[in-house]
Amino acid sequence: MKRHAPSAERNREPLLPVLRELLPSRGNVLEVASGTGQHAVFFARAFPELTWQPTDADPDAHQSIEAWRQEEALPNVRSPLSLDASSSIWPVESTDAIVCINMVHISPWEACQGLMRGAARVLPPGGPLILYGAYFIEGRPTAPSNLAFDASLRERNPAWGVRELGAVTQEARAHGLELDRVIDMPSNNFTVVFRPCGGR
Q1: pLDDT digits over 25-71, tens only?
Q2: What are phi and psi of 181, to 5 degrees?
Q3: In whole angstroms, what is the distance from residue 82 CA to residue 62 CA?
C-alpha cells in the first residue's frame, strides 16, 4: 500500500531549510494534498515539536500515508484525514500553519480557490500558508521546461496547468490573505507564502 513519488524525494531536502524559517516552533501543521505520505514523515521527523496532520482527497493516498506513518512510528504524525481543498467543509477547525506541495497545478482551479477560502478560515493571524510548485510569474522569463510541463498537465486533464502567480495572489486577497514572499527553488519551482491579513 505504501507508494513512492520520486518528486517527493527530490524536493524535500531543498524545502527543509525553507520550512525551518517559515514554520512556527511548535503547534499543528495541516498538510493539504499529502499524496504518498513521504513528506509528512520526513518533515515530522525534522520538526519533532510540531504535530503533522496529513490529508488527501484520494482514499488510496490515505492507505499510503498510513503505511508510511506505521513504518516510521513517529508520535507527531496523525492518521490521515479526508480533505477536498475545493470543499467548503474541512475536517479541522484551526491549525497553526498549512503546507501544500505540488497541488495547485495538479488540480482544478476550484481547488486553489477552496484552499484560499479554507486557509483564511482555519489559520490564525499571521499563520503561514506555504505553497510549493511551479508558477508563471509576470515579468520573469518562463523556463522551457515549465512550458512543457504545463502542456503535459493540460494534456492529461484540461482543468490542470501551471498557474499564474498573479491570479493565485488575487484569489488569496479575495479571501483576506496577503502575499508574504516568493522564494526561488530548484528546477524552476517556487515556495510561495501567504498569511491572513493583520499579523505575521
Answers
A1: 999 999 999 999 999 999 999 999 999 999 999 999 999 999 999 99
A2: -165, 160
A3: 8
DSSP string computed for 164-180? EHHHHHHHHHHTTEEEE
Decide: 185 and 156 in contact? Cβ < 8 Å: no
The residues, any chain, with a CB within 8 Å of residue 121's CB and separated by 6 or more, are 90
Contact 65, 1 (CB under 8 A): no
What's phi and psi for 28, nearest 5 deg? -115, 140
Task: Report the chain's C-alpha Rg in angstroms.
Answer: 16
Q: Which amino acid is at 105?
A: H
Contact, 40 vs 34, CB < 8 A? Answer: yes
Which backbone phi and psi does 145 adopt, to 5 degrees?
Answer: -65, -35
> Residue type for 179, please?
L
Task: Give the three-state DSSP class for 77.
Answer: strand
Classify domain 6-196 at the CATH topology level: Rossmann fold (3.40.50)
CA distance 46 to 111: 28
Residue 103 DSSP one-character state: -
- State the angle between helix axes of 6-22 and 38-46 in degrees (0 to 180), rounded to the nearest 10: 40
pTM over 0.90: yes
Sign for the CA dihedral angle at 103, 105, 109, 113 comes to: positive
